[in-house]
Amino acid sequence: MPSTLIRRTEYDPDRRILSVWLMTSDKRYDFEDVPPETFDAFRSAFAKGRYFNSHIRNHFRYRRSDS
Fold first, then answer.
1. Could you state, in order of their start, the residue ranges of all structural domains in the chain?
2. pLDDT for 12-47, tens place per residue?
3. Strands 28-31 and 17-22, how do they pair?
4. pTM for the whole structure
């Protein structure tokens, strides 16, 4: 099911960085030290926005990028 919150995601398992682009912004948010298990659960979640808000946002340190 397409998300109304999340436009795109990428995950770098070597660096454990989850990059998220939100629908409401052109900015990228890089969440640090995200375990592969968390990314797998996020990727397979039916409601990705709900999973993101409950398990990723405010749980991992992040930095914002304009690219």
1. 6-65
2. 999 999 999 988 887 899 999 999 999 999 999 999
3. antiparallel
4. 0.87
